[in-house]
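Design job #97: recover the sequence.
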């Protein structure tokens, strides 16, 4: 069993909350709304659940110490952006105060957009700021996540934001005693059913997350952080050999592959290169990729992010490798006009060239993933097709499968 370093922004894709990497020079402000430009589109930014929790905690502390309500609260995010957020549903009593800040996903709408994040603050005889989760905030049950098992799923950066915001409020009133903070999300347990929390070992609600405090529309950071988190969790459970699938198709194929433990597969989405990089960085010994030819064929061209907005040269790669396999130019032209890889495979199958082309493609895939890993990982790829089933495997697959099964106790 190995220990792992904590992930700074783990489980971001659990909520699809993409906030990492917002640089100050990228933010444009118009009429107090902040925008970033992605793919020639102007997209409004939002703020994370972590920012909401910290702002609500600051407001609740001020209201408790002043016994006066607030309409809004100012807070500075970790990347230096100052926000003025409306305070909702405020309650002030002599011994406690609570209020909520509404999550805003900007133009990156996700399952937490519009949700109220509550903070209840009480003065305490204990020193410092004690932070816990209440209703609708998940509880960590497995190793390898940002927080240890038993803790509320409030990540490191939001905890720091909450702590600093509460202390700032306390010092402004000259209060030097302790404070107890409870973050809650009334709809959190229901929302969590739409996320990956249960898969990662977080039960009972959503996670309070965010590293920059700002939700950046169309960022890949959230998904990449989720892959990292899941990989860390596998390593913390003693799994040095990891099965990765891009999505539903890959998972389906893996489940149908004989003799392979499928329980611990991670989803790497389009981020093949990043997944390999993480595996090397975190000390994974071997990585097995299972996926559809329509996705993984791009790897045969050295393309390590397979999203269509980055590259869609499936037919170019198929045509070029078909020529290498001895296919004539007219057939290669027909392949270039195909809509799907299955359609192209039909053409190759009709002239008995499918297996030879697939063999060449697998050699190219193996070359590029080995080069990406710089020889520091055992690697294998298994490629499937909806129409033809298993198309082929690279040399390392048969060696890695028993090691995946051994780690899974099979």
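Job complete. Output follows.
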């Amino acid at each position: 069993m190995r220990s792992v370093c904590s992930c700074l922004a783990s489980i971001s894709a659990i909520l699809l909350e993409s906030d990492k990497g917002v640089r100050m020079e990228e933010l444009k402000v118009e009429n107090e709304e902040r925008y970033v430009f992605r793919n020639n589109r102007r997209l409004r930014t939002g703020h994370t659940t972590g920012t909401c929790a910290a702002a609500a905690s600051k407001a609740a502390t001020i209201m408790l110490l002043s016994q006066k309500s607030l309409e809004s609260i100012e807070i500075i995010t970790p990347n230096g952006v100052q926000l003025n957020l409306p305070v909702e549903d405020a309650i002030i009593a002599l011994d406690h105060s609570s209020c909520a800040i509404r999550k805003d996903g900007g133009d990156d709408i996700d399952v937490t957009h519009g949700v109220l994040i509550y903070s209840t603050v009480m003065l305490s005889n204990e020193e410092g700021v004690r932070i816990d989760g209440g209703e609708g905030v998940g509880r960590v049950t497995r190793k390898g996540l940002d927080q240890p098992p038993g803790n509320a799923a409030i990540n490191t950066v939001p905890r720091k934001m909450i702590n600093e915001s509460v202390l700032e409020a306390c010092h402004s009133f000259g209060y030097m005693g302790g404070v107890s903070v409870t973050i809650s999300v009334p709809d959190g347990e229901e929302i969590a059913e739409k996320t990956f929390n249960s898969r990662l070992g977080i039960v009972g609600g959503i996670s309070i997350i965010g590293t920059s405090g700002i939700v950046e529309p169309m960022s890949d950071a959230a998904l990449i952080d989720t892959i990292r988190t899941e990989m860390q969790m596998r390593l913390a459970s003693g799994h040095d050999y990891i099965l990765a699938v891009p999505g539903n198709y890959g998972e389906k194929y893996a489940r149908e592959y004989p003799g392979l433990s499928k329980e611990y597969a991670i989803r790497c989405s389009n981020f093949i290169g990043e997944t390999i990089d993480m595996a090397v960085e975190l000390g994974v010994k071997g990585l097995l990729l299972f996926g559809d030819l329509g996705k993984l064929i791009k790897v045969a061209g050295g393309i390590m992010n397979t999203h269509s907005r980055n590259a869609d040269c499936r037919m170019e790669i198929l045509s070029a490798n078909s020529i290498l396999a001895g296919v004539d130019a007219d057939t290669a032209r027909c392949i270039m006009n195909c809509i799907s890889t299955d359609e192209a495979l039909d053409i190759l199958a009709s002239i008995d060239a499918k297996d030879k082309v697939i063999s060449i493609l697998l050699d190219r895939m193996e070359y590029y993933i080995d080069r990406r890993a710089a020889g520091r990982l055992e690697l294998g790829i298994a490629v499937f097709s909806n129409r033809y089933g298993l198309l082929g495997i690279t040399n390392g697959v048969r060696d890695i499968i028993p090691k995946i099964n051994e780690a899974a106790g099979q």
